[in-house]
Amino acid sequence: MSGTIFIRGLVIHAQHGVMQHETEVGQRFVMDIELSTDLSESSRTDRLADTVSYSTVIATASAAFKDANYKLLERAAGAVADAVLTAFPRVNTIKVTVHKPHAPIAAIFDDVGITLIRGRD
């Protein structure tokens, strides 16, 4: 039974960006993560060991996101995807959306960001 585990609205302060002040001061990013995995065993056993733990995914994703100062959101999301796929063999596909609501753009907007989808080879 294929299913989706999701985390929405994970707020992380990090120092990603092209401009110098972004890498010095940092800013707030919001991340959404969707994991495609087989939920058949955990749906029968009710055991955490048979699924993917939200809290462990959050810890892994947060560490990967803050591990380095990336210029591009694409690279930051790629680091998250790689870390989660490495740490959780049960995950088949990951979708990472990174929102940068305070991007230094001379325009009025609600949100900007990227979505990256990565699966196992």
- Gross morphology is elongated
| Helix/strand/pairing category | alpha+beta
User: Can you summarize the main beta sheet?
Assistant: 4 strands, antiparallel
What's the number of extended β-strand segments?
4
Radius of gyration: 16 Å
Number of helices: 4
Write the layout of secondary structure elements.
Blueprint: E1 2-14, H1 20-24, E2 27-38, H2 40-45, H3 54-66, H4 73-87, E3 91-99, E4 113-119
Helix pairs in contact: 3-4
Plain-language structure description:
The protein has 4 helices and 4 strands; from the N terminus they run E-H-E-H-H-H-E-E. By secondary structure, it is an alpha+beta fold. Strands 1-2-3-4 form a 4-stranded antiparallel β-sheet, covered by helices on one side. The radius of gyration is 16 Å and the shape is elongated. The two termini are 21 Å apart. The model has no long low-confidence stretch (mean pLDDT 94).
